[in-house]
Design goal:
- The protein is an all-alpha fold and 209 residues long.
- The chain contains seven helices and no strands.
- It has one domain (9-208): Methane Monooxygenase Hydroxylase, Chain G, domain 1 (Up-down Bundle), CATH 1.20.58.
- Helix 3 packs antiparallel against helix 4 (77-103), helix 4 runs antiparallel to helix 7 and helix 6 runs antiparallel to helix 7 (174-208).
- The model is unreliable at 1-10 (pLDDT under 50).
């Protein structure tokens, strides 16, 4: 065992919990794509996302509870808290997007919504890869590469949001504009919180490599 491994706590609880959170996000993003690409059985599909969100809430609670109990953590408490908050917010916006698709009585999600859902899925998959690597910190450059991908997707999502709104206001009635804009923004916000999580992970990689 090296000096770094000797000094750091060997309790893996935070790594375990963050990996659980990442897996739940990947699952919920996949179900969001399924909902947006095949808009049938919408209540059942939304319910699946909602249940994953509830599981994620419990994981977030456990992270906060563990953080309040321990004195020595594998990285800074602020980093643990910041990552937990960003991942939790991502799940909130995934579920919020699905909820609005359902309750706004969306006839069929458009191509922009589908594209944004896929961007969320790509982002959370990259986050999962980064989170799996913070347990050992053997390849910090790889962690930063995954985080950079998330950041790039965030910029693409922001541009797509602008394009979607511009196109929508030219052809939709006022009520549909309001509803669709809200869904677009929920989806785009999810990518923003993915970037927040990526920023924390990147900082962890730099500080603890």
């Amino acid at each position: 065992m090296g000096l770094r491994e000797f000094l750091l706590p060997q309790d893996t609880v935070f790594f375990d919990l963050f990996e659980q959170q990442a897996a739940l996000l990947v699952g919920s993003a996949a179900k969001l794509i399924c909902l947006s690409e095949n808009f049938t059985d919408t209540k059942a599909k939304y319910r699946e996302i909602e249940l994953l969100g509830q599981q994620a809430d419990r994981v977030t609670y456990e992270i906060k509870r563990e953080l309040s109990k321990v004195f020595i953590t594998p990285f800074e408490p602020e980093e643990i808290s910041g990552l937990a908050v960003a991942l939790d917010a991502t799940m909130v916006y995934i579920a919020g997007s699905a909820e609005r698709m359902l309750y706004y009585d969306t006839q069929e999600p458009d191509a922009h919504m589908i594209a944004l859902a896929k961007m969320i899925s790509l982002s959370v998959t990259e986050l999962q890869e980064a989170i799996l690597r913070i347990r050992t910190m053997k390849d910090p450059e790889r962690i930063e590469k995954h985080c950079l991908e998330v950041s790039q997707v965030r910029h693409l999502a922001h541009d797509l949001l602008s394009d979607a709104i511009t196109e929508m206001v030219r052809r939709e009635d006022a009520m549909q504009v309001i509803k669709s804009k809200d869904i677009y923004e929920q989806l785009e916000h999810a990518t923003g919180h993915c970037k927040d999580a990526a920023d924390v992970l990147s900082n962890i990689a730099i500080r603890h490599a």
